[in-house]
Amino acid sequence: MSDLTRTTAWAALQQHQHAIAPLHLRDLFARDPGRFERFSLQAGPLFLDYSKNRITDETLTLLLALARESQLPEWIERLFRGDRVNGTERRAALHTALRHRDHSPVLLDGTDVMPDVRRVLDQMRRFSESVRSGEWRGYTGQPITDVVNIGIGGSDLGPAMVVSALDADCGPLRLHFVSNVDGADLSLTLRRLNPAQTLFVIASKTFTTQETLLNARSARDWFLAQAGNPSHVARHFVAVSTHRDEVVRFGIDPAHMFEFWDWVGGRYSLWSAIGLPIALAIGMDRFDALLTGANEMDEHFRHSPLARNMPVLLGLLGVWYTNFFGAQTHAILPYDQGMHRFVSHIQQVVMESSGKNVTRDGRPVSCATGSVVWGGPGTNGQHAYFQLLHQGTPLIPADFLAPIESRTPLGEHHRVLLSNFLAQPEALMRGKTAQEVRVELERAGLKGDDIERLLPHRCFSGNRPSNTLLFQKLDARTLGALIALYEHKTFVQSVVWDINAFDQWGVELGKQLARDLLSELSGMPARAPHDASTSGLLDHVRKRLPSA
Ligand code: G6Q
Question: Which residues are catalytic?
């Protein structure tokens, strides 16, 4: 693709931004009664209001022209039909096949992948049902009560998020997630568990990830310290991986391995066997509903016109703020306590996918790509970082998400939650003028200098953009649609920026250096010299490190 910033669409957007920048959202609403109807849409279970964005009809026309100039429709087709869209690894990114629901084939190099996908889904169903029902017994003959998923990154964040969002505690099993190589993570988790009733799911696409294998070995040692006989491992350790040989080398029975494939990226893998802890927690029927919700979003993304396409619109709005307003971060604010891990998962999806500084063909990018994704559940954030959203100097576009109905109704709680959820985007959009503050302070009995002193502190500029996503209830189908929405939004942006959304070479250098430093910490000589800071720190640590 030619340089994005030299396209006609880009130049037109730049010019248009100058015209839009001075306009206040309050005025855009005042002069346009149809704004909410025009700038909102329903896709499956999700309702999106994007009218509180600093856009006009012309903005959308120009953003859609940019999408067409970037060949977005063609790229969407390439994604779904299994082209090797991950060029640096020569892989397809066919996570959509994992949630493909009808009986049509999904071809990869001419072969239908669906029989394999269904085979593993069946295996997950049989296994999760037997563990949940108590039919699967541990080595003492007792049923399993606790499941520990050991994995990291894509093999942890997605399943952990879904399990916490969908109230796993209601099921017959308690789920635990261990990811950090900090021994505290595993030790504190195991402290409360009985090896005879614990099942470990070792989740690693490559089955070579240092943290996961070390945690898995320590877990096996802990288990064998009580179980004694290594043959008992078979009833307590299962694996999820693409690498059978490595699984066998670790000592897990390949009959207890759940397979997935190299065309499933780590951060897009919760829909595959990496979702096994989800099935164990909430049952396979609800895991199926999660897939169905994601599939509905896939269908919407693939077939809706760009102008009525939710991931496309959200992706383009992100481009608008990142590239034309200089926004560097994006807040995701779910008003649902169960979604407290949602941001961490989406953060990985977005930041690993978009954190690239070269185009698909290896040229330096000519504009900013990606943004820092952050946030957390409302209303907690309102008492913490919302100050920066309302009166800080950076422009921070935000997504507000909420269920209309609570899954855990309690008195007035949900109405209070919803009132806050509705108030924050309104406040960000509207702000408060000096005139409004003055009237308010006068009413409160303040006069003269006191009013003037407080005035600048009490004003809100407003004009701060946000999207609002509403859904009836946070059930499995809705959550599936929400996750797929952000996956596709991320893909849309990668197409516009002409970057590969499916590789992550940026995580490699640190891993390489850590390998050398590990041997140096164990007293081996350095293979290559370090800078003065790293050598100094290494010496400082070595002198104080208790001997193992
Ligand atoms: C995700 C990344 C990364 C990966 C982990 C775990 O897209 O590739 O987060 O999921 O590094 O890798 P394994 O599953 O191979 O252990």
Answer: 352, 383, 511
